[in-house]
Amino acid sequence: MGYIEPAPLKDEKNPFEAMMSRFHIASQILGLDDEVYNVLKSPAKQVIVSLPITMDDGSIRVFDGYRVIHSNILGPSKGGIRFDPGVNLDEVKALAAWMTWKCAVVDIPYGGAKGGIQCNPREMSSGEIERLMRAFTLAMIEIFGPDRDIPAPDMGTGPREMAWLMDEFSRTQGMTINSVVTGKPLVLGGSLGRTEATGRGVMVSALAAMEKLRINPYKSTCAVQGFGNVGSFAALLLAERGVKVVAVSDLSGAYFNENGIDIQAAIDFRNGNNGTMDGYSGAEKIEGNDILELEVDVLVPAATEDVINSQNAEKIRAKLIVEGANGPTSAKADTIINDKGIMVAPDILANAGGVTVSYFEWVQNRLGYKWTGERVNRRSDRIMKDAFDNVYKTSQEYDVSMRIAAYIVAIDKVAKTYKFRGGY
Ligand code: NAD
Question: Which CATH architecture has domain 44-188?
Fold first, then answer.
């Protein structure tokens, strides 16, 4: 079979290659046949659009937009839309495939997709961003739909952009269809619990892993890279459960306090400080990337891709890595981390709390009903814990890392479903 030898990584920082290298190993272990391997290795659909937008100064700028549907085997595809100057097709393809595996790991009936627009929202006015979001929605009118492809926020987008998307889509259909997108503001059918859902899932995964490693949360320490949506909620919820969070970081640098950081105070500081930790005085400022090498029990990378790579993996001293971000560990670093005996709760498992509650949002929209926050949390905690236990059991069964086990669970599910559905 053509896929037995793992493809050598040409570029450690190419997220699509990183995804494929894990996919490859798990497929090999599963003994996936060539037919299914070939179906799953390529995205089902890739759409590239050019969006001419009138800027506030009257000039017209053309933005590149992407939507990649990796798979719709398990159901309508699901995945966020990223606004970032670095967006490119390879990145969107990798993120779309990760969504397929993530939905399969937590057993929700969605395929995987991702979208992105190459732009810098920090340098654009609200009006410019609104026109861009509406133009993208219109360009994707044949793609998006509550039973076809359901977008959500990602880096650089949030509830505001999702409201514009939902409104633009609804206008073209002549009726309000709020289930076309998740991550909406609460008044437009957003779900309680969505904002903190990813960080909450990271906390559930961390506690489940700590139990396996016999680490007592009340005697443990943790460092969190990235103090945005995922990182700050993960830090807060872990601290509430007794974990001493000794360091957090964002683009402004890292902040270390061996006695533990008061996370609620740090979030309040960030919220009143233009969203950045710059100038935070409750901790000592250290070099940004040093946060990854601190001697802590738990490390939560919750910022961006490839931060743990072949350059620094050897220096990681945590006993457990819980991946809040997508793809924070490069494929090359996997081997080094495994050899050091560090347990990893991988991204497609640990950060799946967000898509789980997005699924609940879609379910509520379709029911025309609103769940309490308590119900949302209880159900998502159960899904996250069950998924963790399933991946852990698989890792024992096949004697593989938690990451490869998560891919095995996901690929097996999608492959079995494909076999039942069949192809041409
Ligand atoms: P965000 O924009 O709210 O926060 C990102 C944080 O990371 C910010 O504090 C930023 O300053 C910091 N950061 C960026 N690059 C950094 C670097 N090199 N070093 C240190 N800090 C850095 O984004 P988010 O929604 O919290 O997402 C973070 C990660 O989690 C991304 O990889 C995203 O794809 C992933 N993720 C998010 C969700 C979600 O529901 N928001 C769900 C699943 C996965």
Answer: 3-Layer(aba) Sandwich (3.40)
